[in-house]
Write a structure and sequence with these properties.
The protein is an alpha/beta fold and 216 residues long. It has 10 helices and 10 strands.
């Protein structure tokens, strides 16, 4: 689990887009398992990557199809299994018709947290080898974030995960945190190591801690 900590507008979403080859870099290389992604077919590359963004798109239909995206090779048992793993099963089960319940376009009849959990189940359903979380917890309240944090812990097991987040609570348990500032890598390490350095990451941590304290 690798975390990217950048200031707003510093290129977090650009990095996620480059990894998926939504557009290609003009210089340098991006390697996956030692292979340049330019040498991989886009369809093959994207099949191995699940991207979860802050603004989740939910399709009109039912909960089941929003998870398996109309791929009938994913049966109901598998859909329920992945939903349980990411804490989505409980809220889906309490919908009027469970997994057959109607979901409005863009998830208008769901909360922000429910839409995010549904997107987690969708990502896990495809069995990705690489997971990219792009500000996946930024639009939910603190209580919902705890549920989503548990889901992230399960979602990242057994796969390479790149977690891009503004909230330090989302990335503090990652194996390595990369801190980028003004286009350069300025620090890297675990949460504890970076706090000990009392550098740029520590300043960000202090600012967020003070903001939280002032809001209470």
């Amino acid at each position: 689990r690798i975390a990217l900590k950048l200031a707003t507008g510093a290129g977090k979403t650009t990095i996620a887009s480059l990894l998926n080859r939504f557009y290609d870099i003009q210089g340098g290389r991006i390697l996956i398992d030692g292979k340049d992604i330019h040498d991989l077919a886009k369809a093959s590359l994207r099949k191995q990557i699940a991207l979860i963004q802050q603004d989740v798109f939910i399709f009109s239909g039912n909960a089941r199809e929003n998870i398996r995206l109309w791929d009938e090779s994913h049966d109901q048992a598998w859909v329920e299994q992945v939903a349980k793993e990411v804490n989505a099963h409980d809220f889906i089960s309490h919908l009027p018709q469970g997994y057959d319940s109607e979901i409005y376009e863009r998830g208008a009849n769901l909360s922000a947290g429910q839409r995010q959990l549904l997107s987690f189940a969708r990502a896990l359903c495809t069995r990705p080898r690489i997971l990219i979380l792009d500000e996946a917890t930024s639009s939910v309240d603190s209580d919902t974030e705890k549920i989503i944090q548990e889901a992230i812990q399960r979602l990242t097991v057994g796969r390479t995960s790149l977690i891009i987040a503004h909230r330090l609570s989302t990335i503090r348990h990652c194996d390595r945190i990369l801190v980028l500032h003004k286009g350069a890598l300025v620090e890297e390490g675990t949460h504890e190591q970076l706090l000990t350095k009392k550098g740029y990451y520590w300043k960000l941590y202090e600012m967020q801690f003070k903001d939280q304290a002032n809001s209470q």
